[in-house]
Predict the 3D structure of the following.
Amino acid sequence: MILGLTGTLGSGKGAVGEFLKGKGFKHYSARELITEEVLKRGLELNRDTMVQVGNDLRQNNSPSYIAEKLFEMAEKKGGHSVIESLRTVGEISTLKSKGDFYLIAVNASPEIRYERITKRKDVTDNISFEKFLEDEQREMMSDNPSKQNLRACIELADVKIINNGTIEELEEDINELLKIIGFKIEEIRKVSKREDYISWDDYFMGIALLSAKRSKDPSTQVGACVVNNENKVVGIGYNGFPLGCSDDDLPWAREGPTLETKYPYVCHAELNAILNSSNVSLKNCKIYIPLFPCNECTKAIIQSGIKEIIYLSDKYAETDSIKASKIMLNQSGIKLTKHTPKSGIISLDFTPEKV
């Protein structure tokens, strides 16, 4: 089942969407999709640019383009879904043709709606009451199938909610609606968990790899993550110089006279993770590291009480340092596990709208 939300500006469509999310519905928003496109085009984010870009997407693709994109996302994820901010007849007609679709229209008096948008302090809502009414009138009717036609959308709704009251009253209305259309709240809450979450090992190795991005070393960046038997991170580190030692004044060279290379000065990621553990006991912990530890870090690992090393690469296996590490690790009984990733590439998107 997919529920669609249409309605006037500030009527409470977002509140309905959030309430339905709490009931187990997956939430998809035309506003979020258009906002992403506005920012991608380098435009100022306001009501005018959102209307312009939304109309442009429909004009250059199809009147139902935005709804189709959101429907594809909902279908891919599966389960019960709610699609917010439907604004054209084409969008609604397309979704109705998919079957198992129910349209809800939300409205309220202009004064109440304007008060709501001023309180939420969104960048697109920083307008006067006159501009608010002007924007709404612009979006209320249009003969162009690619442009907003809220009045026609509201008329197509299966049910209309007047939201002039409290949030509690709105939630009562939605609960009553769910009962009318045959939903059982208890069943909705039984939505299965997502299956594409990362494993603990990928998660902790990911922390180690991300920590490595803090290293100033121009040739080798390594991170480390220490985890206790409750899967809690108790230490993180990356390779760099000791506290108070300048990253700009000390050398980063790999070759040359000893004192002119990085080796006498640098602290490896494993040692830093152990030293950064805030005096927490590391007995029986695990350490996640991209590279097999050198002999010096191996000494620190053994002395700290860590009982397992999970590593990604052993590319320096033929060096005396690594050979010495393995001799000590074998004698100390520390478990060695070569990590086999299950997730492949994991990307991070720092765009606020994607959070």
